[in-house]
Fold this sequence. Notes:
Structural class of chain A: mainly alpha
Helix content of chain A: 40-55%
Number of strands of chain B: 0
Distance between the termini of chain B: 69 Å
Number of strands of chain A: 0
Largest sheet of chain B: none
Low-confidence stretches of chain A: 1-5, 8-82
Keywords (chain A): Activator, Nucleus, Transcription, Transcription regulation
Order of helices and strands of chain A: HHHHHHHHH
Radius of gyration of chain A: 20 Å
Strand content of chain B: under 5%
Subcellular location (chain A): Nucleus
Shape of chain B: extended
Mean pLDDT of chain B: 77
Pfam families (chain A): TAFII28
Largest interface: A-B, 73 and 71 residues
Mean pLDDT of chain A: 69
Low-confidence stretches of chain B: 1-23
Helix content of chain B: 55-70%
Structural class of chain B: mainly alpha
Family (chain A): Belongs to the TAF11 family.
CATH architecture of the domain at 135-188 in chain A: Orthogonal Bundle
CATH topology of the domain at 135-188 in chain A: Histone, subunit A
Order of helices and strands of chain B: HHHHH
Domain TAFII28-like protein (chain A): 96-181
Oligomer: heterodimer
Radius of gyration of chain B: 22 Å
Amino acid sequence: MKQSKDPFEVAFEESSPPDSPVEEIVGGQIEDEDDANVNVHPTSTPSAAPSSGTTVPPTAKSKDEDEEEEEENMDVELGKLPTSGDPHKMAKMQAILSQFTEEQMSRYESFRRSGFQKANMKKLLVSITGSQKISAPMTIVASGIAKMFVGELVETARMVMTERKETGPIRPCHIREAYRRLKLEGKVPRRSVSRLFR
Amino acid sequence: MNSSSAGPSSKPRAGSSQPSDSSFKRKRGVFQKDLQHMMYGFGDDANTSWTALLSAGFLSKQSSHPLPETVALLEDIVVEYVTDLVHKAQETASKRGKLLTEDFLFLMRKDLPKLNRCTELLSMNEELKQARKAFDVDEEKLATME
């Protein structure tokens, strides 16, 4: 949803997803998803359909970047899957992915590609710590943790909605209830000293 | 005790960057776009009812329009979460003096999915760095060969 080319749909139409995702990562960019596959696989799997090589955009290769959050790996979903390298899990993922409806695919793509901007997260971390020295891995870890936290909140909010038998978009009351439940579970770090003068 | 509806910052909602007692200005809507995509990915609605009317038949892909107040609340919660996380990490890091990535990992020790995800992200980062280095070395070799 960020790129005009929508290489995701291109890759989807290939319908013969390449199998070896991992090693020859050339100048890819890091991002919070594990989509650091950088269109490697189509070129590295001779057994895959011959069309796969042509559909992969070369742009991702030349641009490496920590700064370039928007410049994302095009060939995302069908390449490096979360279980990097485990053939059984990968096969299972391929099987599941091939059966997604369009809406599910779009959601999954959103899930994989979304993430907090590194620059914004870095600014936030700098302002919290007061020090300028925030390493790149720290930003990456913080963004990853925050994203998973958002996921927990949204999923718990959805559960709350089904319990209350409500439909439609998620409302703030659901989020607050989800937040309260997460707090009870201990997943939200609590300050040992209460915040005064807020 | 937190009144979570007000959000962690003392800044008014309407203002974009009004400084308060803290030394930094925090704009609202910093994470708004990212959060919208994220919420859609995690299960929020693709379209609220009015956008559904507008977009019926025109959108080939789902676009995400969660309620703006939900997004704003989520942003507040996330900022508060990260803030508390960093403060806790600084507590453990204070003995060492520097804040390291390991402090975050230590904080996540109880939460296995997050811990695994963090280690995965870090190892991927390392892989990419190695790959980039190898790429640069190859380029140099090519350059010197000619």
